[in-house]
Amino acid sequence: MSDEPWMRGLHTDTGYLLYRLGLRAGSLFNAGLEQHGLRLRHYAVLRYLATVEGARQRELADRLGYDPSAIVSLLDDLQRLELAERKPDPSDRRNRIVVLTAAGRELLRDSEQDGAQVTDALLAPLSTEERGTLHALLLRIAEPGGED
Q1: What pLDDT, in 10s, does the model give residues 73-129?
Q2: Are the beta carbons of 80 and 36 closer than 8 angstroms?
Q3: Which end of the chain lies in a sparser environment, N or C, as judged by fewer CB atoms within 10 Å?
Q4: Cα(40)–Cα(30) distance, rounded to whole angstroms?
Q5: In 10 A of CB 33, how many CB atoms?
Q6: What residues form DSSP beta bridges with 92?
């Protein structure tokens, strides 16, 4: 990071450092996902869908913290790429649930190594213990009350 006097002040601001890290991490992850026509937000939806039997659009918005209209657009993209599919909800035919397709599962499996490489590059300066500590701290910040 720069030693410019104006930057030293920003480097004492944890919020700013988290913001910069988020930008850098997002950029690196997006670069790897572009080969599949995806961005990190698409990948987050796919990762969530891999953990459930199906989800309503509203659930996806709530769980991922995305605006409901953004979810609709993301799902349109994923459905066009045949990575996710909207199906009738068996418990309420007026609703649709979103499920991961076989191609979506395959993409997740194939892209796990890419994601691990990005994480390794970002965390290269840290020891294994420091990585664990950072993960635990970020989880506490990102999901307050969720580590019970």
Answers
A1: 999 999 999 999 999 888 888 888 999 999 999 999 988 888 888 999 999 999 999
A2: no
A3: C
A4: 6
A5: 20
A6: 89
The DSSP 8-state label assigned to residue 89 in this structure reads E
Structure token pair of residue 103: 């191609």
Taking each helix axis from N to C terminus, what angle separates 14-33 and 102-122, rounded to the nearest 10 degrees?
130
Distance CA 101, CA 95 (A): 19
* Distance, CA of 59 to CA of 53 (rounded, Å): 13
Continuous segment of H or E residues that includes residue 139: helix 128-142
Which two structure tokens, joined as six digits, stand for 69?
A: 């209209």
How many Å apart are CA 87 and CA 53, to the nearest integer?
A: 12
Per the DSSP assignment, residues forming a β-bridge with 97 are: 87
Which residue bears the tokens 């970002």? 122
Q: pTM score, two decimals?
A: 0.77
